[in-house]
Amino acid sequence: MMTSLLESIGYVGWVLHALIWLPILGVGLVLWGEEEVAKKVAFWWSMGVLVLSLGLWWAFDPTQGSMQMESSTPWIETWGVSYSLGIDGISLFMVLLTTLTSALAILGSFNYIKERQRAFYALMLLLQAGVVGVFVATDLMLFYVFFELTLVPMYFIVGIWGGERRIYAAIKFFLYTALGSLLMLVGILYMAFTANELLGFPTFAYADMLQVPLTGTEQLWLFTAFALAFSVKVPVFPLHTWLPDAHVEAPTPGSVVLAAVLLKMGTYGFLRFLLPLFPVAAQHTTVVYVMLVLAVIGIIYTAWVAAVQPDAKKLVAYTSVAHMGFVLLGIFALTVNGLQGGLIVMISHGISTGALFLLLGMLYERRHTRKIEDFGGIGRVAPLFATVFVLTALASIGLPGTSGFVGEFLALLGVFETHPTIAIIATLGVIFAAYYMLPMVQKIFFNALDKPENREMQDLSRREMVILAPLCALMIWIGWNPTPILERMEPSVRLVLERVQAAAPAGTLGSVLEPGSSVVIVPAPADLEASDDLDGGDRSTDDD
Amino acid sequence: MYASLAAVLFQVGEAASAGGQEAAESGAHFEPFLPGLIVLLPLLGFVLNGVLALRHATRSAEAVRAGGELDLDEGGRPLTHTLPSLIGPGVLLLAFVITSVNFARMLGAHLEEPVVVTYWTWMATGTFSVDAALQLDQLSMVMMMIVTGVGFLIHVFSVGYMKDDPGYPRYFAYLNLFIFFMLVLVMGASYPLMFVGWEGVGLCSYLLIGFWFSDREKSDAGKKAFIVNRIGDLGFLVAMFYLFTTFGTLDFVPIFAGAEEAFAYGGALVTTITLFFFLGAAGKSAQMPLYVWLPDAMAGPTPVSALIHAATMVTAGVYLVARSSVLFALAPVASATVAGVGVLTALFAATIALKQNDIKKVLAYSTVSQLGYMFVGVGVGAYSAGIFHLMTHAFFKALLFLGAGAVIHSMHVAYHSTHSHEDGQDMRNMGGLRKHMPITCATMWIATLAIAGIWPFAGFFSKDEIIWQTAAFGGAANAPYPALYTVFWLIALAAAMLTAFYMTRMMVMTFHGENRTGDQEEKALHEAPAVMWAPLAVLAVLAVVGGWVNVSEHLRDSILGLGPLTSGWLHEWLHPITEQAQLIQDLNLGVLAESAPIVGGGEVVWAVLSGAAAIAVVLVSFRYVGGQKIVPAAEDVEPIGFAKVLYNKWYVDELYDRIIVQPILALSRFCWNVIDVGIIDGIVNGVGFAARGVGFVVSMFQTGTLNTYAFILTVGVLIILGVSIF
């Protein structure tokens, strides 16, 4: 029934455009309206977009791995830049995650944002448009534009509505990510020029880029350029230090969107571009090991750092790095199980960490502090709050029966298939997750209710429950029945891996550099890069 | 998932109309009766009690905000008390009845293969797929009977014990949730599903240990339990990864069917897998070196200790080894490790129990010690003996804990009557309770005789079988390490004597001699109400006759066999489960010894000897402890010398704190302050500072940050254009 309804309105033809342009239209509406109604307009508008996006669940063809609902219009014809959109199993859930968390984050800012509301909600909608654009763009230049577009609203959200050190955090965030993505721009341009030479016409289209045969050396250089940009976003250790500052200073809705979807743009980039476009580099032994080792360091190191944070929000921010480590681990497992697990971790982290930031924001609104030691015994005055928080925390540390477990389990399983030792070390993260999360839960919600100012604390309001209920439901639903999601992603994941495998005719991941191509200079830069990156890895290990 | 709910409903309808037509998948004659409902009922109880609990908690939160406390009666007695009292034990009773129907059906059938009932595909991706499926076979059936049966009794006891607790509905919500996860653990048809139950019971344990969460010490204990358990869970996970890469599946049936083909006897892979599994088992079942959480877990309400930390959850590790018997039988080194760790834990925990004064602590260390025996059993290939001791232990240890609960309850009321802050769990404050609590005293004595291994109580048969099997295993024709197993056997015998001593000491200090509670307080001491002593009575019966279902042939032929009263039923019943492991063992080890190592003597001789020795120890220690002068806790002096070491539990907690907890904390702080803030951010800020210098120059031409952004972009594009032209 749903399918025929969607067909009758020609849903697949316009939905992707609508998901980008409706929020932008919403920006206009919010700015045009009154200051007092800005939040309501923004919320109902984003709810509309959310409802609209839900149709994707039915309209999406789960049997097809390649891009669906594609459309393309020339944009800057002389350069071959086009406005091309499309969606596949990898981007489908990122889009849904974006529309969902955006709407909830907007609802979650009702009490938090008191000044310049119109500007704030306009930026939130702009951010949403940008993120959706990142996930559905099938033209590299268009992708880059959206990728950078998200930076601007986020910069202002942190810089204007943030905490005390907001300017420092905003600049740090900006510098890190802008520098990273500049390298990617160089890479994109290089690819476009190569494509132009080979194909005879200017193009930035993703599908055309896949046709460009790059030598092993070129791939390694391009991989490095792209990987830096995405690694900053993920963030991968040691490029992560912008994240805790940005999270702590950002207003709640900013943190929610940052954790839930902005970080995913990084790992999405790995899956969408790095693996399919540079398959030789992506399975180069050194590259794989560097990425896996960095992922493992991210998992364990940031878990330790998280455990000693006095600021609850900073603690959760660090755990994001650990979670994204599991995603990276799954991706560079280069197995179906690993990639699928990584994707589920992305979804699960978006839901559970998004919820944690919302909850911490609600705590902050009540007590105007984020210091863990300022709380204690909150469970007695806010039992609903405590219940939801504990559930979310458990989903976050991957308790079986919640979404976190499915993702981590599959990702670790996938890595174990190719790199058992690394998988075993990464599994230690399971212990350290309990080590950072449970003490925080205890110090905030359990122990004695000994501070008089905490006795007054109100439990969850109805609005807050409306925000949290869908997230909690998703944590449990995905925990028990992830198969409908997994089966929608799998064909696209397989397609990515087929490309990777096709580039390794010998089938061994060690000798990936094709014998025919650029025999002359292959080893040198590979070794160079290897030693550079390994030094980085070693140094951090020694410091541990 | 919805399909599964429909399937359950369909089954209900089917059962109501026709009484079933066809068996689910295999098993010619056994037809499962609503197995899904067994799991769903406790879950339903959790949801209902959870709603009531949240409603009640919200109301009492309002009272706290207003500056007071909410009286349980004010909260509306029917909703906060009556309804949870009906729902909590009610769903358990129903689950027990349904389980019993299945048990009866299975008794009548000759089930050779496990019956697997599949509900929905849980996770399916790439090469990995696992179903939400329940497995019904002889082993899961025994466990289900224990979990629902003993679980029901403990729920009933709780109605009395927790009567006046402000968290009453929340308590039953947690307890029901625990039963749900425990049933998933024992009924799950695959390792991942078992792991759901495995961590789920850990969660409930965490919630129930920290039930009185306002108390820092109690919520610390909950946290400790969770984290230590997770160390074990690491082992479980890694073992699953190895199994998956070997078999391409994690379902029990295909793994055990293919194990002999996939693994060489004693091979490195199967040894690795089983050792990792044992790490998991050691965490959950509180074995060395991961036992430290269990004594602290006594912070929870006493019925919780009985249910989770004695009868069910902590035995999950033993269940895991028994379930994976085929794998362990193929790995003699791992099995020897299991037995070795088990026997050392049995001895070590018993020594600590000698000097504890807290009645629950004695029982906690006793549980650790008895779990050690179970691991000895499954470690020497006597899987049915391990499960047998698991079962009898569930009876008598649940009884001991509930009895202790009755005592603590009475003591608490006594001290409350005079507003005294003395410790109601300290045995030095008890004494002479026999006069006030005759039923509790009598039933606990039965359990004490059972655990001490006195004939013909349940523990005699189960413990004796394990000890004997250890001896026989060491004397097997091709035993791998005969001397080692001889040592194990001797240690097991010695620890059994310690058990008899510390249990008698506990009973004497609690129930005999002069009362030390206080003159005023003594008047308030009272027997437990019927709702509490009735479960004690049922368990007391089981603690006597529970051992009669698995008496070996040799003993049955002797005078110890009690003639027609006893049988070797359990061993036969579990035969389809243990058969494969037994065959592997017979093939590689040859026949087990008929007489004990070193000194000789058969099973009956040693049963008589150890039984007699246990009686002697009980009698001697009854006189010895009874003759000692015991003073109330407040007047007592610190123990000195070796007694002090035992009293302080060999300082293991302190050792762990020194060599593990503190270093990790220090390392964490180092990572944060030095690496993250110092080195990485130092570099970043340095770069940022330089960039700001540039920005200062740029700001002469540009204003505003957005423009800077545009500027950087433009420069970037120009550079690229330059490069491409060049």
Could you characterize what this model shows?
The complex is a heterodimer of chains A (544) and B (726). Chain A has 544 residues and is mainly α. Helices cover 74% and strands 3% of the residues of chain A. Chain A has two domains: 1-274, no CATH class; 283-502, no CATH class. Chain A is built from 25 helices and two strands. In chain A, strands 1-2 form a two-stranded antiparallel sheet. Chain B has helices spanning 2-17, 35-65, 77-108, 138-161, 168-187, 191-209, 216-247, 252-262, 268-284, 293-296, 302-311, 316-323, 325-329, 332-353, 359-379, 383-417, 438-452, 458-474, 482-511, 519-522, 530-545, 553-557, 569-573, 575-589, 603-627, 642-647, 652-698, 705-725; strands spanning 115-125, 128-136. Chains A and B meet through α8, α9, α15, α17 and α18 of A and α2, β1, α6, α7 and α27 of B.
Regions with little confidence, pLDDT below 50 for 5+ residues of chain A: 506-544
Q: Main sheet of chain A: which strands, in order across? A: 1-2
Low-confidence stretches of chain B: 12-27
Structural class of chain A: mainly alpha
Terminal residue distance of chain A: 57 Å
Secondary-structure element series of chain B: HHHEEHHHHHHHHHHHHHHHHHHHHHHHHH
Q: How many helices of chain A?
A: 25
List the quaternary state of the chains.
heterodimer
* Largest sheet properties of chain A: 2 strands, antiparallel
Query: What would the principal axes of the Cα set say about the shape of chain A?
Result: globular
> What does the average pLDDT of chain B come to?
86
Helix coverage percent of residues of chain B?
over 70%
Query: How is the main sheet of chain B built?
Result: 2 strands, antiparallel
**Radius of gyration from the alpha-carbon trace of chain B, in angstroms:** 29 Å
Placed side by side, the strands forming the largest sheet of chain B appear as: 1-2
Largest interface, C-beta within 8 A: A-B, 86 and 77 residues
**Tally of helical runs of chain B:** 28
How many discrete domains of chain A?
2
